[in-house]
Amino acid sequence: MKFPHNESSINTLAYTINAGLAAHPTDFPSIDPTGLAGLHTEYMAAWTAATEAKAAYRQAIAEKNARLNAMTKRMKSDLKLAEVDCIEDPQKLYEIGWAPKSAPTPLAAPGQVDGFIAVVQGPGSILLKWNKPATGGRVSNYIIRRRIQETAGEFSDWLVVESCFNIETELIEQPRGCQLEYTVTATNPAGDALVSNTVSAVL
Fold first, then answer.
1. Got the DSSP string for 2-51?
2. Of 20, 107, 173, 179, which is least packed with CB atoms within 10 Å of its CB?
3. What proportion of the chain, given as a percentage, has pLDDT over 70?
4. CA 159: distance to chain centroid?
């Protein structure tokens, strides 16, 4: 039998040993039952003190957090009032460690995507992948356009075939047996990015 490693099991075993020594002292003449019993009593007293200290600590933390929340709420309220008081001279807010609100930064159009590639998946199916723009504003979505070479040397107009939020998309049921070209453009409410490189495929 192996000696336990966790505190609860060690405590249980101490109870069992003490009870067994008390009930059968003549079977274990080499052991002084008062030694372990005394140490176990001291342990239980320390355990009780630790448990009470933990409870007190949790209560203290809860009280501290409640005070912090109340203080934070009052600070925010006072700062709003200060902003009203200093509406004619916002620089005065620096006197209380605050600052005037910054003017909103206008949203910029996204930058151009790069690394645009096409992977033929099968008849009429193509997987398009690209990288997020390295510059510009946040991207709202990506617009995929396609054109078809209907006759030798002549392409149709560009047609929007997909709008997506991810940096890849699979298009199915695409025209087969003709030259296809695709581009992707990042866009947001501020405008469209430069069009990506063009990729070609025949499905």
1. PPP-SHHHHHHHHHHHHHHHHH-GGG-TT--HHHHHHHHHHHHHHHHHHH
2. 173
3. 100
4. 37
Q: The domain 114-202: what is its CATH number?
A: 2.60.40.10
Q: Global pTM?
A: 0.54
CB count in 10 Å sphere of residue 169: 18
Return the amino acid letter for 79: L
Q: pLDDT tens digits for 155-168?
A: 999 999 999 999 99
Three-class secondary structure of residue 60 per DSSP: helix
CB 133 within 8 A of CB 147: no
Interatomic CA distance for residues 147 and 157, integer angstroms: 6
Residues facing 199 on adjacent strands: 182
Give the bridge partners for 117, in sequence order.
129
Average pLDDT over residues 14-19: 95
Q: 128 with 168: CB under 8 angstroms?
A: yes
Strands (DSSP E) contained in 90-196 are 114-122, 125-131, 141-151, 154-155, 159-164, 168-171, 179-188, 191-192
Residue partners of 127: CB distance under 8 A and separation at least 6: 118, 119, 120, 121, 168, 169, 170, 171
Tokens of 200: 């070609």
Percent of the chain at pLDDT exceeding 90 = 88
R_g of the chain, CA atoms, integer Å: 37
Q: What is the pLDDT of residue 121?
A: 80
